[in-house]
Amino acid sequence: MSEPRFDITSLQNDRVKDLVRLRTRRDRDRAELTLIEEPLVIERALDAGYPLQTLFLCPPRIAPEHKELVDRLLDVVGLECVRVNEPVMDKVSYREQAEGLLVVAPQVTRDLASLDLGQAPLLVVLEGVEKPGNLGAVLRVADGAGADGVIVCGGGTDLFNPNVLRASRGAFFSVPTVAASLDTVLEFLKSHNIASVATSPVADHRWDEIGLTGPTAIVLGTEHEGLSGDWLAQADLTVGIPMLGRGDSLNVSTSAAVLLYEAVRQRSSRKADPT
Amino acid sequence: MSEPRFDITSLQNDRVKDLVRLRTRRDRDRAELTLIEEPLVIERALDAGYPLQTLFLCPPRIAPEHKELVDRLLDVVGLECVRVNEPVMDKVSYREQAEGLLVVAPQVTRDLASLDLGQAPLLVVLEGVEKPGNLGAVLRVADGAGADGVIVCGGGTDLFNPNVLRASRGAFFSVPTVAASLDTVLEFLKSHNIASVATSPVADHRWDEIGLTGPTAIVLGTEHEGLSGDWLAQADLTVGIPMLGRGDSLNVSTSAAVLLYEAVRQRSSRKADPT
Hints:
In chain A, about 35% of the residues lie in helices and about 20% in strands. By secondary structure, chain A is an alpha/beta fold. In chain A, the strands form 2 sheets. The first copy, chain A, has a 7-stranded parallel β-sheet with strand order 7-6-5-10-8-11-9, with helices on both faces. In chain A, strands 1-4-2-3 form a 4-stranded mixed β-sheet. The longest helix of chain A is centred in the last third of the chain and has 16 residues. The first copy, chain A, is elongated and about 70 Å long. At the A-B interface, helix 6 and helix 10 of A face helix 6 and helix 10 of B.
């Protein structure tokens, strides 16, 4: 007799029910787990050595270009593999088109002390970011600009929301992401001589008027509310990005992009040469 | 007898069915109409003098902070107002929480010749952008940076998708948006002496090494494919944004933000003064 092709074929299976429950934050946080689904994001987690717990695999759905990734996953020591059929995959997937892979991974929380800071760290502090997609988009641009970490402050942010991981395109696994209170962050920045540069529509400086080559934390608020008075009062500098059209703000990830790449520009030894 | 409070209370009303149909592109394009729903976006359309055809209004849903907007709308000459009850509003709204306003507006298409170009125009050309949210996000940052227009090229883009308007936060109405073929765009740029600056991961220059103070069109491709060979071969310059982390690209709106604000920086008379 041949082996059964699938470990799970019933939508009523308890593990299927457990997986579906992990779509809600309360259940993810209680189980201290998260879900990773996009092949690219799973690959980034693997590359970063992030611990993975269980792989739900639907072999009929695996596209040829993802076979190598599946082989890498099957080689991970301690990663349980559960083969499921297509109806089960569709049920547990949170994407519209399930691509045959779903990984359950532990929530690995980090604290500020664990940040690996070089001589002139470049950090991003986000206050009150609510939408997982926005946090993910900031992580992606922070990765692009080589930032040393993203600190989420103000509580309530669902760091391990699968949409954070997805929107970050896996940058979640390469850019250390830490949640901490305002007081803790301020103390941390001061004790490490990291200048806090807060963005504000009524700022003292233009974004390109200040030096960003030293240890710097770029502090961004929500689109609607901006930064709290606490941050604005306690930041070392306030900077504004000019709004030259009709709108009054940029999205938080585009604001982060403008400031982070201004830091990259200033930090680069190659000089701008406008012709 | 008092006037009836609502013009439409039946979900079976033909106008309700017509409105629901406008959620699909085919029906929007056939009717040459689009839908605007967020109060802020409606306000921007009003500010820009964009023609509006019909206002579907659900008075019980109007929040106090939007009453002034409703008054402005009711003053617009030629704008039909249809009062609907809450079940009808929920049915026609494409948002989860209908806020009591939905405006039907004509699709006003523009061509390149209609662009109002100053001495040193700053344009964005997007090739093959598919997601309405991405186009909207680019429009928002183009508005912030004071760009003179966004040209969408490569066909297929659903310019009047309500999600373009929404994601743009109304910048769709302040930044002229034009669809045109590659050949038409190239000819237009050449005839107006506008330098095309194409982004590429294998570029000749860093983004901050080239002059962006003259007439400039920043050309961006899709995240997955990048720009086509045609654009890369025919652009005047290619520039790259360094990717210093693990990811290999930025989102198109963050790429646009980095390049557009580098142009703003260079064009500003105030000089950067890194300390």
